[in-house]
Structures are given as structure tokens and as C-alpha cells.
Amino acid sequence: MSNTDGIAVSWADVRVTIGANEALKGVSGTAQPGRLTALMGPSGSGKTTLLTAVAHRIAITSGDVLFGGLRWSKALRRRVAFVEQDDIVFPELTVRESLSFLARLRLEGDERTTDERVSETIKLLRLEACEHTKVGSALMRGVSGGERKRLCIAQELLVEPAVMLLDEPTSGLDSAMAMITVEVLAELARARQICVICSIHQPSSQVFHSFDDLILLNKGKAAYAGPVNAARAHFANRLDLACPADWNPADFFMDCCVGDKLSSETARAQIDADAAKALAAVAHALADAGGGAPNRLVESVTERYAKPWRYQLRVLLQREWAMRKGALWDWNQLYLHAGIAALGGVMWFGTGYAERDIFPRFTASFAVILQWVFFPFLDGLFVFAAAEVQLRKELRVGAYRLSSWFVAKTTAALLPYAVWPLLHVTILYWMAAVNPMGGAPFIVTLALVYLTIVLFQSFSLALGAALSPGRVMTVALLCMTAMFLFTGVFIPLEQTPLPWIGLINPLLYCLQAVTSVAIGWGAPYACNDGVRVGTAYPDVCTGRPGDQISPERALADSGVWSDLRLSVGVMAIYALAFRFLAFRALRARMREQGAAQGHVSALLASLRTTLARARAVHVSKPQAAQPAAVTSPAADRV
């Protein structure tokens, strides 16, 4: 089966239970290629549930779904496109960039071929006027709502899918934009023989008649399934519910559902008979699929992805750069880091090499790395949470491997730290004279700062991947507090009840590494002006002229027991281990079946049921061209 083959989608006796609510109660039907099918129903009827069940985005309690006679498999992910109601896009990219990066990941062939496909898709979706405009968001000026919606459709159309499933493609659009969007979908279905199914909420008459077929759901069951132009006659002749001549048929059908007019004995009998016929019509396809021939489309792991791992990584890095390059330089960041460095430089200005300067040099070493622990640690906590929706969407369609995205995303998250540590450390290091013995100690200290950044970013990534966004900040602050306390800066570790905690504290090794360079690579320290009274080193400072404290002795008395190589080794091991744990936790998170979403869906279902009952009490006979209002599309996201 090629991506461009026209295939029918059939579902038989599909039942879905979410929590205590049975969202679908045995729905059967078929959608044909080359036709645009509307999936309608009031809030709580199960239309979004059916759409996501067909797309295998939620678990089906019972029943079966076939795609051209084949049961679902991972091989169908690139042939079945799903467009969410919420526009999942990158606001920082232009329309063409959004399509180009995705095309390079999902399409086979060279970049010239993918560019041609992108241009063709832009023209087909009527996006030429905005192709070089940033997509934008609520906080960033960009394309219009209709253009953003067509961009979402274009992203799925790039691979020429055989089936397109769209959840509320006209939601949030005015009537003109909604009409344009539906016209484009109708053209796609007929020109490319794609099976297109759209859930849609109370369309205008013009939009409604642009569809070929209608599936009307009510209370989790199919109230009608058939051609749009036959629906009015069906309701009048079979269900004894005549649509007034001046009514929009879509409004009338919705009023019949909301007003509980399909509960009459005649209507229920006809709907049950139609359901039985629909199930029988799909039964032979199910029987064929269960026969001796293979009933699943199979592809190897190498066939699952259009491009190899290295190419995926390169494209993903380029996409991250395109999104971040405009925000790398920020004057506020310049003022912040330069100001913090200057304040520290004033506090430790011109630290010398007397005995009284040993502890200030130790604390100055702590100041060198302090903010490069704090900022990367907090920034990394929500890297995955912020990108999770887009990541799940692209993983579902096999755009790339999770490992290539992980490397690209976590590497790009370090880009803001390419310049600011150099600025901060340079100012503080030389103003405070942390080690004025030459350029080598400065270069090594700067390298240790960058290693510290990688370590604590890795730590925060692991926490962010393993914990929910609501809990991660609490755990992170507790970890940060423990790490700062158990460094020996405030109280010697041997004087604490749990001195062993310092041995597993990654911050301790960062401090020990920087301090070993600041103190250990420096000059000897002169005793307190040659007097023995009050010295902390009576065995060295004997009162003789020229008594000095060696750097090694100063390090030991400052609590630095680890040499530079050991500290760097431990820091590197921690960084690698945390990054590995972050990837494993993220992979487990991506494999979850959405237990938390089930609780939310159950709550929404309960809310919809309450609202539907309230509407049924207050609804009256039609008196105007518009029936009683229904709830917003957002409430139907089961």
C-alpha cells in the first residue's frame, strides 16, 4: 500500500470507556476515499472520542478499526494523518521554515525534492501570501487563525497520507475562513483520493453542504450515517422529524440531539436498525482481515523513518538554531550577568596572598560558579514539558527517533550559555584576582564553569523528565538547598550529622575543582605580618621573617581533599549519568498511555453530561433560524 492509495476506513462496534463514562456505545461505520466526511454531534456525544479512537490515540475498549482491510500497526502512522484541534506549531518559525524542516525529516529524497514538495503544498493550501511570515502566537504577531489552521493541515499533507483525520478544523475561525478551510479539504479529498474525516461543531449551511457524507453522533451512538444531501429526507421520512425550510439542516440535526427528539420509539427503532445494517456492512471486511492473509502492514525499523539518525540530528539542530538565534543576544541578560560579576568583583576586589586572604579566595571560587549552577538548573526543569505536545505529535508520525531529538534539544538548550559565562567569569575573575598567576588558571577555571553548566543542566533535565511539572519545582528546590548546604562553605562537613552526604553532592566536586585551581595553582601565602599570635597555622607561622603557608596546606585547611583530576572525573560521570537517566525517563514518559489524561477526560465528560441535561430542560420548539446554543468546542475534547 503506497501513501497515495485511496483506502476506506471502517469501524465496527467500537466502544470506549473513560473512567466511569461510556463515551462510545457500539458505533459502526465507513468513510470512503475521495469524499469529505463530517463527524457531528453535540458536546458529549463522542465525536472527538470516535475520531481519536480511529486514529488509535486512545485505547478502544472493544470493537475494531480497519484501514483498507488492514488492522492498525505502526506502519500506518505515516499514512494516517491527524490534525489536532489545537494548533501545534512553532511560533518562532515562518510558514515555509515550518514545512521545510518537517519535510526534510519525513520525506525521502534530496533537499531539492523536498523543497519542491513544500512549494507545491504551500500553493495547494493557499499559503503563498504568508509563507515568509512567522507563525506567531498569542504573545508574538504572526499569521491569521485560518492560515495557522491550514499550516497544520499542510504539515500532515506533506507525506501524501491516505487518510486525514481532523479534530475541529474550523474551531475559532470566522465563517469566511471556515469556508476556505473546508473547501481546501474537499479539493484535497477529491483530487488525491484521500479519505478525510472532520469532527465539526454546528457548521454554517454553506460549510455543511461542502461535505459529502455525514456521521451524526448522539449520546455515544450513531444517529445517522450517509450522504449529506440525503440527511434531511432521512430525518423526515424515517425518524418523523421534518426540518423547516428556513432552517440550516446542521442546526436542525443538532437541535434534535440536544432537545432529546431522537428518544421517541420510532426514532430509536430506526436508529437501532441502521446501526445493525452498518455493523453487518463492515462485518465481511473484519472477517477477511481475520483470515489467513496477513492483516497488518509491516515495515522494518529502517523503513519506519525516512532519514537516518545523523541526518535527523542535523535537521533538528538546524531547526532549534532557527528558533533560538533571534533570542541569543539580550541586553537584559548582558546587564544581569555583567552586574552580578561587577558586584562580586567589588566585594572580593584585589584579593591578595596573605593568610587572611585564604578564606576570601575560597568564597570567591564559590562565587565564580554560583550562578552557573543556579541558572542552568532552573532552565532545564521545563525543557521537556514545554516541548512535549509537539514532540508527541512528531513521534506519532515517525518523523524522527526520540534519541536524535533528545540530543538536539538538550544541546540547543546550552546555546544561551555560550557567551554569558565568558563575560561573567572574565569580569569577576580578574577584579577579584581569583588567581592572577597567568592565563592558564583562568582558562581551566572557565572550562570548569562550562562543565558545571552541563552537569547541572543534566541534573535538571533528569528531574524534569521524571517528575510532573507541578511537582518538579518543589523537588528541585529541595535538591538545590541540600546541595548548597552540604558543601563545607557554611559548616565543615565533618561537623554535620550526615557528613557522607557531601560525598554524593555534585556541587561539592565543582567547588573543589575551582578552588583547587584558585588556591592550589597560586603563590604561597604570607603569615599574619610575621607574628605568631592569632595565626591558624602555628606550626608554619613561627614568627620568623619569611614564614609562608604553602598552597597545598591552604587547600587542605580549606576542606579541599580532592585533586583536580578526581573532581573533573566525578563531574563528568555525574553529567553523563544524569543525561542518561533523563533520556530513559523521557522515553518512559513518551510510552505512557496517558493515565492522567483519563482523569481529566472523565471530569470533562461529567461536566458535559450535566450541561446537556440542563440544556434538555430548557430547550423549546424552534422559533427562529438558530436553535438552542450548544457548548463550546473545547468542552468536547474527550
Q: Would you mind describing this structure in some detail?
A:
This protein is an alpha/beta fold and 638 residues long. It folds into three domains: 211 residues, Rossmann fold; 74 residues, no CATH class; 229 residues. It is built from 22 helices and twelve strands. The longest helix is centred in the C-terminal third of the chain and has 28 residues. The radius of gyration is 33 Å and the shape is elongated.
List keywords for this structure.
638 residues; Rossmann fold; 3 domains; six-stranded mixed sheet; four-stranded antiparallel sheet; 51% helix; elongated; disordered C terminus; transmembrane helix; transport; ATP binding; ABC-type transporter activity
Distance between the termini: 31 Å
Using the CA coordinates, give the radius of gyration.
Answer: 33 Å
Helix share of residues? 40-55%
Domain count, please report it: 3
**Count of DSSP E strands?**
12
Summed up, the helix count is: 22
Provide the residue-averaged pLDDT.
84
Low-confidence stretches: 593-638
